[in-house]
Amino acid sequence: MHELSIVMSIVDIAEAQVKKNHARQVDAIELEIGELAGVEPDAFDFAWPSAVKGTVLDHAQKEIRHVPGRALCHECDGEFVLHEAFDSCPACGSFVYNILQGKELRVKSLVLS
Ligand SMILES: [Zn+2]
After folding, report:
1. Residue 45 included in any domain
2. Three-state SS string across the chain, please?
3. 77: in domain
4. Which residues sit with Cβ closer than 5 angstroms to ligand 1, an ion?
5. Total domain count for the chain?
């Protein structure tokens, strides 16, 4: 499962930070997940408990910030909300645009103890 490998890479990041800061565990973790990052929220939440079990994230409080997709159209110069990676511009129907945000998938903050 795709989401499981994402959670496991987050565990890697958290373990590296815990080690680097000579901490014992993570108390809280804040994640930023873009609407266009290809992460299924339900599958992610389902994968989380088993993937973090026995790791530094086992007792961490998890908070997820969902970042909406935004794009800038090349044809009409309009900025619009992009819910799916292959949607067209709502103003002119163009498929040529730059994605401004929504592809992020990162650890925003960690609280260690
Ligand atoms: Zn457009």
Report:
1. yes
2. CHHHHHHHHHHHHHHHHHHHCCCCCEEEEEEEEECCCCCCHHHHHHHHHHHHCCCCCCCCEEEEEEECCEEEECCCCCEEECCCCCCCCCCCCCCCEEEEECCCEEEEEEEEC
3. no
4. 73, 75-76, 78, 89, 91-92, 94
5. 1
